Fold each of these.
Amino acid sequence: MHPFSYTRASDTREALDAGRHGGRYIAGGTTLVDLMRETVERPETLVDISGLPLREVRATQGGGLRIGALVTMAETAAHPKVRALYPVISESLELSASAQLRNMATIGGNIMQRTRCTYFRDVTADCNKREPGSGCAALKGHNRTHAILGTSDACVATHPSDVAVAFAALEATVHLLGPDGERRLRFADFLLRPGSTPNREQAVRQGELITAVEIPALPRPLRSGYLKVRDRQSYEFALTSAAVALHIRGGVIREAKVAAGGVGTVPWKLPAVERHLVGERPSAALWTAAADKAADGARPLQHNRFKPELLKRTVERQLRVVGGTK
Ligand code: SF4
């Protein structure tokens, strides 16, 4: 591990000041400390923000939900309002990581976490994300777990977060605070596809702090849930996953929010699937036809040609679970 200095921010102003001078924010530390141990990350200054007043889940005036950036994964998953209004968020969190990690890791840190591509974490391997311009060892290497959507010639790594898939499906907003004041970003604009600059993963500016993730109000009743398909049932990342939320009234689907994980370089929203569902009556045939569009545009790699079909089946099954089968 490279030497670094550590400072603990006692208030937001102090944190922003340290961030503006190049300090890296740390709260639960469940990703950053691992990467520092492996010398993938080498920050000179860590700014501990765990004492800032950003640890609250509350309803917004419009009927949505605001989750403070420092609320832990476990606290978010267990929160009565989250469980009641957006089970898809609770389920995605409970299927993530381990109980110990969920007790430490925060929502802000979760959406800032870096890829689990093994070549990224191996400092002897070529990796454009870690070392821009060095190449991508995964393209010709072992790429079974890598992305099939949103990839580029520079990087094919998946985004590892589960709850980010739920946030993408629900069209959340990320609240940021920086030297120039407050800013809001649509979740779809917050995480960046790799393009030619895979080293840039989030649209966060130097010194900006995530303060909250806001979930918009959605029409009620809203059924939602998360399905994660992985090689083992615990402490494993998704091969494919599906976050689904449906507003069904009078026997007709009035709104559909669907996104996939484990397949994209960012959580992958599925607008073609959503469009196919809206205005229709739930049925087994509808779930199959809608899910058939889930892998549109997929570009599988040598070892993950199974993913498009697995993705369709994952989406179909979760539509059936959330929407019911007739
Ligand atoms: Fe690095 Fe991305 Fe290639 Fe993995 S897929 S080796 S993270 S450039």
Amino acid sequence: MTSSLLYGFKRIALGLALALGFCAQPLAKEQLNFVVIFTDDQGYGDMSCNGHPTIHTPHLDRMAHEGQKWTQFYSSAPVCTPSRAALMTGRLPVRSGMASSKRVVLFPDSAGGLPQSEITVAEVLKGVGYNTAMVGKWHMGHLPRHLPTTQGFDSYYGIPYSNDMDRDPSVKGNWVTIGKTSPWSIYKVPLLQNEKEIERPVNQNTITRRYTQQAVKFINENKEKPFFLYLAHSMPHIPLYASKKFEGKSLNGIYGDVIEEIDWSVGEVLNTLRKQKLDKKTIVLFTSDNGPWEVFKTHGGSAGLLRGAKGGTREGGMREPAIFWGPGNVKSGVVQELGSTLDVLPTFASLAGAKSPDDRAIDGYDLSDVLLNHGKSPRKGMFYFGGAQLSAVRSGNYKAQFREENGINPKPLAKPELYHLGEDPSEKYDLAAEHPEIVERLAKLGEELKATVKPVPDQLVPRIAD
Ligand code: MG
């Protein structure tokens, strides 16, 4: 055998060994990028692919068609601050002190925020080499010690709390009317770049467009490295404003205009990924922090056929529009399995080859088998908190409601209610009298969960002036 032939055999053998994974150093699997597009107070019914008749969302519809649309995907709280804390940490917000029975969310006078001891999804991904950016509404503490740059994000561009806060105190009157009719200049909300204030009050007509530009810029600048982008729109939380291109254009009034601008923004992000040939290397999740703000009527959205709204623990308060997209990775279709924003950290960690924290209770599950293979979801239930009170428990198709649906300190109901969410997604027909044993089983699950929650300082109570 000639030496050149021998060399040829060696090369083939080495190639085979590499292909079969016999090499001493395993080949690094290409890391997927992750994008979370999070809207504020968008209802379950507020996209055309979820049946809305007068809001047109072609980009979300295409995203749903190419990706996975989830029909039973939950936030872990019916209001902003705790919901966001759960998304970041994979933990029920009562565990981090970000759910309170005394104050509903963080305000501009709040001194608290997501504790540094919490581990965020950005920190987990940074640990395996990701570049990270946050664009949009944070609402997990606005003092420098709580901003995104202290919680695993390399950069931040956005507003630190809700767009209806910091209202000019000289503007008096009914808050619903003010919220529906006033110019953005009465809300002295700052726009921050990292820790620095760059505009105040923030121009809310252009905010969705500017967030989008920042998101697109970050993707373009990070096409060579794995990245995590958290794009949290301030809209459609009231007060509602759209840019000139969208104002007055939808059939649904200003609420529809705002959603249609967000839909455009989703299109810009996905098109940038396609253009940079990152679409097959990226997983994008689109979802919302809580249900629609019903008290604002046409300025609040719609939970579709679900009962209840923002602030409540009926389905409409916490079940969200949700789409996972990732051509070539996420298997397309409609998913009726259970999922939650609590599952984002474990799922992304698993897909990135990172470890979820194992020194604390994690309430999320790894959904990667559902995303990649249409497998069964490991999530089989959901706990619904009103403030820091456990109000309802879902296990399989059954949901027991133990406390009032609304408020931060919901009182126990005179009698628990029971619904079959498969046959009765609108929670209309109480089955508690027929199935007391199921109510008892779900109550026990709730007690078992509560026993695992260690008391921690309430982050929503301390004020700067204290
Ligand atoms: Mg919200």
